[in-house]
Design a protein that fits this description.
Elements: E1 4-10, E2 13-21, E3 26-28, E4 31-32, H1 33-36, H2 40-53, E5 59-66, H3 70-88, H4 93-99
Parallel strand pairs: 3-5
Antiparallel strand pairs: 1-2, 2-5, 3-4
Helix pairs in contact: 2-3
Length: 128
């Protein structure tokens, strides 16, 4: 099997994934998964698509990950892995789509407007 690549984004985070057959090793920016994402919840998020279709130990995954925060990066990686698994076998798509892993979460931070302290917050109104 050749190397399959895919891309996933969430907020400001971008994950480029390269999937090849192997023993289930996940390497992120030349570091191990547990080393890069110490919290078990984030490791769980990353592995969700693999566990959903039951191929957790079948593929080695190399990841280039940058931008955003730790949670956004984990969710971007989940989307990228899901897209790569669909490229490998299109029959995986319904199961992954049902779990919501194929949908790009388009919510991003709203910009700050001039004359306001934040995006929606207003300065206190003074009548006199």
């Amino acid at each position: 099997m050749e190397v399959i690549n895919a891309i996933g984004r969430r907020k400001a985070a971008v994950a480029r994934v390269y999937v090849s057959e192997g023993k289930g090793q996940i390497t992120i920016n030349k570091r191990d998964l547990a080393d890069y994402f110490p919290p078990a919840t984030l490791q769980f998020i990353v592995k969700q698509p693999l566990n959903t279709i039951g191929v957790a130990g079948n593929y080695d995954i190399k990841v280039n990950l940058y931008g955003g925060g730790i949670k956004g990066q984990a969710e971007a990686l989940r989307l990228a892995i899901s897209r790569a698994l669909v490229k490998i076998d299109a029959e995986n798509k319904p199961a992954l789509k049902a779990e919501g892993f194929m949908t790009r979460d388009s919510r991003v931070v709203e910009r700050k407007k001039p004359g306001q302290p934040k995006a929606r917050k207003k300065f206190q109104f003074s009548k006199r």
